[in-house]
């Protein structure tokens, strides 16, 4: 039954049959038609198959033959050698759906653009994950470096303590040898030995105090370093939160402006209805209608986009005050982020938006001079 469903779709190219196909059946259809799938989800694969079939039909512009290849001509069948009834059924399907082919082609093209935008967003998310992973590795390396430094300081302290113990052992041996050599003069030199012992004790205490002071200084340095790192992280987090709050406020302001504009249009329409006046049809000069004549902004073709836009706006005699609103409606991805970084006054200026986007993609006048001087 599953193979019959695949054969029926290959024969009729009916989108309803494709909706019933499973993931494995979609893979068989793509392999039979020579279509390379770039997505993994079932719904996206269906859209991609229909989009590529429609694009292939628009490119060839030829109807399949009802009678098969003529004598003396090479066969144009696919490698799977589909029967001639497939061509007849497909031709009948195209003749019956000719009136809606253009509309469906536009819908499939829009779906294809949405899929491409989704793929770009996923690639950007993967890039952000890689950057976050790299930052995590740097933090781990820094922590490892701090641990190595602490271990080295601990070894130095242990070596110093061992050296002190050895010195004390040698001093004790010397005292014992002196005591055995001067046993007869013990009473006379008792006071001298006590003074020497007191001096050695003072030295040990001073040395121990010095060691404690050094350890306290090292601990204070570590604490200061940790406090500085915490302050830097806190400041970075506050900056991110402030920027996010600013972007939210800005988006809220833009949304309120759009709502007020829609409300004003509705009030005008209600007034016209109350006075018995007909509703105004959508004019060719409306911003939404104008946007249909403009291409989508592509970072690789930023220069061509602005040149094309200015040429269309000049030929259509659009007011320059509307250029900024028309341009921002065609921005996507990184271009939209660069636009969101501008303040409200710059967003209302076409020249400011153009300069900011060209600078964002390194298309400054200096780059122009270097490009054309080569």
What does this protein look like?
It contains 14 helices and no strands. It has 374 residues and is an all-alpha fold. α1 (2-12) crosses α3 (23-33). The longest helix is centred in the middle third of the chain and has 89 residues, at 186-274. It starts with a helix and ends with a helix.
Radius of gyration, in Å, reads 40 Å
Total of helices = 14
**Beta-strand content bin:** under 5%
**Low-confidence parts:** 62-96, 280-285
Distance between the termini: 64 Å
In which range does the helix fraction lie? over 70%
Mean pLDDT: 77
Oligomer: single chain
State the total count of DSSP E strands: 0
In short:
This protein is mostly helical and 374 residues long. The protein is 78% helix and 0% strand. Helix 1 (2-12) packs across helix 3 (23-33) and helix 4 crosses helix 6.
Features:
single chain; mainly alpha; 14 helices
Give the SSE layout:
Blueprint: H1 2-12, H2 15-20, H3 23-33, H4 42-60, H5 84-96, H6 98-181, H7 186-274, H8 287-291, H9 302-316, H10 323-328, H11 334-340, H12 344-347, H13 350-360, H14 365-373
Helix pairs in contact: 1-3, 4-6
